[in-house]
Each structure stands twice: as C-alpha cells, then as structure tokens.
Amino acid sequence: MPEIALAPVEHQFENAEQQREAATMGMWVFLATEALFFGGMFLGYTAYRTYYPEAFAEASRHTLVAFGSINTAVLLISSTVMAFAVRAARMNRRGLLSILLLVTASLGTAFLVIKGFEYAREISEGLLPGPKFHIETSDPVHAEMFFYLYWLMTGVHALHVTIGVALIGFFALRAWLFDAFRDHDTPIDLLGLYWHFVDVVWVFLFPLIYLAGRHS
Amino acid sequence: MNEMHPTPRTYIINCVALLALLGLTIAAAYLNLGPFNTVVAMLISLAKGGLIALFFMHLRYSKPLIWIFAGAGVFWLGIMLVLALGDYLTRGWR
Fold first, then answer.
1. What is the CATH number of the domain that holds A150?
2. Helix, coil or strand: residue A167
3. Which among A46, A84, A207 has the least Cβ separation from residue B41?
4. How far apart (Å, rounded) are the C-alpha atoms in residues A72 and B56?
5. Of all helices (H) and strands (E), which one includes residue A16?
6. Are A97 and A175 a contacting pair, CB within 8 Å?
7. Is A32's CB within 8 Å of B66's CB?
8. Neighbouring C-beta atoms of residue B63, cutoff 10 Å
9. Contact criterion met (CB < 8 Å) for B80 and A40
10. Packing angle of the helix pair A140-178, A186-206 (nearest 10 deg)
11. Helix (H/G/I), strand (E/B), else coil: B33
12. Residue A28 covered by a domain
C-alpha cells in the first residue's frame, strides 16, 4: 500500500487531502470541457454518417486499419505505463517515476511517428481534402466529407498527444533533476488524468474512423 | 482519496482487458452484423473508456465529489448528442 504523499497546504484549504481533491476536481472540470469540444466533432461525424452511410463506409475502407490498430495498442500501453508512473510518484520513487514518464512520452512519440507515416501515405494517395483530393468511390463528394472529418478529428487528437508528450517529457526532467514531486505528487496525478483522457478519445475515434464498413 | 488504492496487478489486468477488447472490436468489425456493427463497436468503446476511467483515472477509488464532476461531463455531452441526434436521426426526408 503506497503512502499518501503530503503537499504543502495553501491557506484556503483545511488539509492536504482537501487540496488534492480540489485540484483533481478542477482537472475533471477541464476534461468535461474537452469532452464537449471533441463531442461536437463526434456529433458532426454522426450526423453526416447518418445521411451518407454508404459514402462513409466506402471512404472508411480507404483508411489504413493496420496503422490505426497498432496505434490504439500503443496508446493503451502508454496509459498503463502512465498509471504506474502516478503510483511511483505517490510512493516518492523519483528514479522509477522519471523512467516511467520517459517510457510514456516515448510511446506517445511512437504514436505520432506512426500517425505521421500514415498521413504521408494518405497525402500521396490523394486523400487530403482540397483541390487534389481523389478517391475511387461511388460518392467522392461525401467521401471527401469523411476525410475532412478524419483529418480534423485525428489532427486535433494528435495535437493533444503532442501537448501530452511535451508535458510528460518536461515533468520527467523535473522529477529527475529537481525531485520536484517529492511529497507533492498531485501534478503527476493530473497529468495522468489528461493522458488517460486523450486515450479515451482515441478509443472512440478508432472504430468510427477505421472500422466503419469493414465487413462489406 | 480513499484508503483503497489500485495495485500493480489491477493495472496489468486492466491493460490486458483493454488489449483484448481492442482485438474483439477489430474482429467484430469484419463480421456482417448489419446495423449492429456500429452498436457493438460503440459498446466495446464504452467498456474500454469505462475501464480507463474507473481504474487508470482512479474514479473507482474517488470520492462522490469527483464522481459528480466526471458525471457532469458525461451528462452534458449526453445532452448535446441526444438532443441533436434526436433531430437528425428522425428527419423523414433522408
């Protein structure tokens, strides 16, 4: 059983536990706004797919399912490592924390590199919406709508992963150099919440982007 | 935070369960289930999201205050999706 690390208590809080709970609550409020932000895009996707199910199924078959599947596994494993990092922070194990954060950031980077190769191939196949967009389907106009949503949603998600990787790398450095989270592990807790949330978004994106219409 | 904390074993089991659900959702996508393909895919995603929230995000071990705020996010997201789709999905002229 890991011991609960004690943070210095600001004057507006009764005790360290209340302070931690307030910070955690604030993070969940932020994540709620993020859920609504991504939710708007999921709503747009659902509305268009309801209107043009055939075009979306055909377009989805042009996505690279192997890249998407591997990337899902990479993110799920990175979340697991992050969970262990949060635990290491709580137990005041600085070395372990730094290493686990570094592994998480590396997996996040691997996700982005794989996504980059995927994007490059899609651009060369003409799947980037715009004047050069080209796709061999019965309804290219709405297939382009699918790919517009694909680039928007995966792009915004990749931006979140990029921010996450940068923060996790920065925190790893602070843990390693300054032992910044000794008895003060709430920032790692909140960083973990962010990273897991980004993982959850991808968990919903993956089947909608890559798996729609695979069976036919 | 409660007295209870997730153990390394919990995290490993959770990871294995998530990867198994990933395999399941990929396999299910290649079966022709008609309109249920999307339903099955979304149910599996909900299960994965739930596992991540409960164990990795420590909801399972959190106080009611945190549940209220996490639930509020889901609730407002639900309002947006249900009310908007209640319109889009029921328009006769599609």
1. 1.20.120.80
2. helix
3. A207
4. 16
5. helix A16-51
6. yes
7. no
8. 13
9. yes
10. 160
11. coil
12. no
Helix axes A140-178, A53-60, angle to 10 degrees: 50
Q: Is the predicted ipTM greater than 0.90, yes or no?
A: yes
Number of CB atoms found within 10 A of residue A87's CB: 22
Residue A113's domain comprises 35-211
Considering the domain boundaries, does residue A26 fall inside one?
no
pLDDT at A37 exceeding the cut of 80: yes
d(CA A112, CA A120): 12
Task: State how far the Cα of B30 lies from the Cα of A214, in Å rounded to an integer.
Answer: 5
Q: How far is CA A46 from CA A31, B45, B84, B85, in A?
A: 22, 15, 10, 8
Tell me the pLDDT tens digit for each residue of A121-145.
Answer: 999 999 999 999 999 999 999 999 9
Interface of A with B in 81-100 (CB under 8 A): 82-84, 87, 90
Domains in chain A, number: 1
Q: What are the structure tokens assigned to B21, written together?
A: 């659900």
Residue type, A83: A
Identify residue B6 by its one-letter amino acid code.
P
Does residue A18 sit within a domain?
A: no
